[in-house]
Amino acid sequence: SAPQTTASLFGIDTLLSEEERDMQATVARYCTDRLRPNLADWYEAGDLPARELATELGDLGVLGMHLEGYGCAGTSATAYGLACLELEAADSGLRSLVSVQGSLAMFAIHRWGSEEHKQEWLPRMAAGEAIGCFGLTEPDFGSDPGGMRTRARRDGDDWVLDGTKMWITNSPIADVAVVWANTDEDEGSRGIRGFVVPTDTPGFSAPEITKKLSLRASVTGEIVLQGVRLPASAMLPEAAGLSGPLSCLNEARFGIIFGAVGAARDCLEVALSYVGDREIFGKPLAAYQLTQAKLADMSLELGKAMLLAIQLGRIKDAGTIRPEQISLGKLNNVREAIAIARECRTLLGANGITLEYPVLRHANNLESVLTYEGTSEVHQLTIGKALTGVAAFR
Ligand code: FAD
Fold first, then answer.
1. What residue stretches are annotated with the Acyl-CoA oxidase/dehydrogenase middle domain (predicted)?
2. pLDDT for 155-179, tens place per residue?
């Protein structure tokens, strides 16, 4: 009988609507035609034509696709997740571009911005004509963003921002940055606040971070703020305190829950095809029991991760998802995806270490995915707190 895929073994199609499957297929086609032929080169060069790709992704309709109005498609969360899955099956860097644009920068403006912020930025960002970034992490504050040193102080009606953000996806190429800063010294301004900062504002710079061994097909930089003067209207009026940035992170984490499944699926597909062709001790590698045990275990974890992603998509679409449920998905799916990528690499032997195959590229990318958007440990602590009622973060 014809070989089955993990998706067919688990009957995944029965869980998705025709509209969701069509949209997934459209994104998959774009990835096959446009991204896959170039990924190894972009990865090796540590460079990609991000502006060009952003407008193409805008045409494809995936930038801010789960948001309503302002040129956004307004799809279900599950449909957005499936788009992330296909993009990350190509490369986590491309999914990062889309996540940061749609779930972090656009979502922040859509959820917390003024009507003027939305009109000014969202239509251009949905079209990929303007690129956004999201500056929360600092050199000394990643898992604990509440300790941030970036300050916004009042000067007349204006705000003046000083500080440094680190590890900011897209910052060197961005047109607009959503920057989170502490306003504690300003009475009545309620702690951490978000600011919409056009990147051509004097005092703003974003040097690129180079020598990365992970997410090489993604632009990463710092944000240096030296006396960046902004009008009062630059502040996101609706967000006060850490709940503002955390709400955006939950959106991006949701995309990762699906995205990680894509990276793992791609590795497993490549490994399956490889073991069918590779002859060792006179027969195909696929015919050995040890190989089949590896494949069965990986397929099982992949299918379970997909079921978890779809379940979380449905409760997100119902509007009832809680942060600890997002943590379950991010923790499990990224942890299992990186384990699958590494196991697939063993099946490819020495060939597995090159860019001829996507497997080690995915595994290396997933090291970043394991760390950003809340590390695995932070998600364990979040789930632990939900189970015990006791916070063990500090
Ligand atoms: P740390 O917080 O220093 O953590 C180090 C280790 O300590 C980890 O293993 C962690 O799990 C562990 N740890 C932390 N707290 C605890 C605890 N309470 N108990 C036990 N162990 C603990 N940030 C942005 O704001 N915007 C972006 O666009 C962005 N893009 C990124 C792109 C890339 C490629 C990368 C790698 C990172 C990006 N980040 C971005 C930053 C990312 O969110 C942080 O790296 C992440 O939050 C972890 O922070 P850290 O690196 O400072 O690690």
1. 133-228
2. 999 999 999 999 999 999 999 999 9
Mutate to test the pocket of ligand 1, among 136, 144, 167, 378 (most ligand atoms within 8 A of CB): 167
Q: How far is the CA of 139 from the centre of ligand 1 (A)?
A: 10
The answer to whether the CB of 17 is under 6 A from ligand 1 is no
Q: Is the CB of 375 under 6 A from ligand 1?
A: yes
Residue 303 DSSP class: H
pLDDT tens, 215-245?
A: 999 999 999 999 999 999 999 998 989 999 9
Contact by Cβ (8 Å): 92, 362: yes
Reply yes or no on whether the pLDDT at 185 is more than 90: no
H or E stretch including 167? strand 158-169
ipTM summary value: 0.99
- Cβ(240) – ligand 1 distance below 6 Å: no
CB of 340 within 6 A of ligand 1: the answer is no
Token digits for 84?
């992330």
Tell me the whole-structure pTM to 2 decimals. Answer: 0.97
> What's the CA dihedral at 97, 99, 100, 106 to 10 degrees?
120
Please give the C-alpha separations between residue 122 and each of 71, 74, 111, 137, in angstroms, as whole numbers: 7, 13, 11, 23
